[in-house]
Amino acid sequence: MVIAIYLVVLVAAFYLLIVRPQRRQQMLRRQMIATVGVGDEIVTSGGVYGTVVGLAEETLDLEVAPGTVLKVARGAVAQRITEDAADPGTDDTTGDGAGA
Predict the structure, then answer these.
(1) 20 to 30 A from 27, CA-CA: which of 12, 67, 76, 77?
(2) CB-based contacts of 92, cutoff 8 Å, min separation 6
(3) For the whole prediction, is pTM greater than 0.85?
(4) DSSP bridge partners of 66
């Protein structure tokens, strides 16, 4: 009987600590990939930075330099680049708006 209780506690802990956070992370990633649009700046999982210039169902066209367009899989999108993250000159760690 005690072994069954330990097993239930172990399964519950595994679910709460591993499975739920991973599912949430997968859901957020799918949403991010689905909402990528033309003009968005992204980083691929290979570390390539670029701007989306075209969309297809499974791929997107990524301009990495003027006149240089790569076709990449939508699943290769690692993250979107926001204005805050793209401007390293505004390092405001104090919160007073003064910058670096």
Answers:
(1) 12
(2) 98, 99, 100
(3) no
(4) none
